[in-house]
Amino acid sequence: MGEMFRRVVVIGYGKATGNILKYIEEQKTVYGYSLEFIEHESHALSVTKKICGEMGIPYANMPDKQELAGYLCDIREKTLIVSASNNFLFPAACVEKENITIINFHNALLPEYPGRNAPSWVIYMGEKETGITWHYVTAGIDEGNIIIQKKCAIGLEDKAFELTERLMDLACEGFEESFAAVMEERVETKPQKFAPGRRMYRSYEVPGEGVFELSDEPEAIYRLLRSVDYGKSAIFPPLRTVVDGVQAEVVRYRKIIPEKKKDEENAVYLPLGENHLLKIKYRHVI
Fold it and tell me: For residue 1, what pLDDT band results from cuts at 50, 70 and 90?
């Protein structure tokens, strides 16, 4: 084993990143590195910023991509960068520096579903299983060798935000299980095998292009609705359809038993399986 990592930089946001940050702080006594956190995507109630304050971890907010790229490229000591729930694309000049190693968490089982919003796409495509991948970062998006993967089932009722939460827990588990091997540079990596024409999922893409027809299979509509459901986080615009010849957007939806059906304005009911209905509340779009 050669020179140890002298510095660890964590970039990301959210609960899972906070837990990973705590774990890395706890391991400082084992490996003797310095630790800092960078928040690239700002959040009003930043969990990670609060953790940094409580644990005395240096914190910086760098929303500007050029500033962040310049800061990372200027690092001189041997450094591990941990990209957790982070959408910043590392420039080649940073990735290719000999003194910098970058690992990234992806919320799917690479090489499948690279890019953004993977939990949405696996639900929309009717997958029965998904998981997480920690991998080394290369110049290509989500192309680096795999460090560790962990799997989980996709439930028939799973919404995107629920699946995302489970994947975040798996990401923390996988990180802790592989951290020592990463720090000691003894990971037995697995190269990714890419199918011809591998699709990259972009941030601007919406499952089903964000529209459906009421004549579509109700199960498919329900799957689409669940795939874009991130609760209060409006990651996607409201889904659209046509009701009585008028454009409408979905306000909310729910799977109910027939006994719960009521005569309501701006609501449609579709048969869902043998014993349920899919209730969709909508508003007309002018």
Answer: low
Question: DSSP string covering the chain, please?
Answer: --SPP-EEEEEE-SHHHHHHHHHHHHTHHHH--EEEEEESS--TT-HHHHHHHHHT--EEE---HHHHHHHHHT--S-EEEEEES--PPPPHHHHT-TTEEEEEEESS-TTSS-BS-HHHHHHHTT-SEEEEEEEE--SSTT-SPEEEEEEEE--TT--HHHHHHHHHHHHHHHHHHHHHHHHTT----B---PPTT---B-TT--GGGGB--TTS-HHHHHHHHHHT--TT---SPPPEEEETTEEEEEEEEEEE-GGG----TTEEEEEETTTEEEEEEEEE--
Question: What does the pLDDT read at residue 14?
Answer: 87
Query: Does the model's pTM come out above 0.85?
Result: yes
Q: Quote the CATH superfamily of domain 7-183.
A: Formyl transferase, N-terminal domain (3.40.50.170)
Q: What length does the chain have?
A: 286
Average pLDDT value for residue range 105-110? 97
Q: Determine the Cα–Cα distance for residues 270 and 214; give it in Å rounded to an integer.
A: 8
Share above pLDDT 90 across residues of the chain, in percent, rounded to a whole number: 90
The domains of the chain are located at: 7-183, 210-284
- Rounded to whole angstroms, the Cα distance separating 220 from 216 reads 7
Model confidence at 46, pLDDT cuts 50, 70, 90, reads confident
Write down the residue that tokens 């140890």 correspond to.
Answer: 4
User: What is the predicted pLDDT for the residue at 41?
Assistant: 84
Angstrom distances, CA of residue 247 to CA of 241, 259, 286? 6, 29, 8
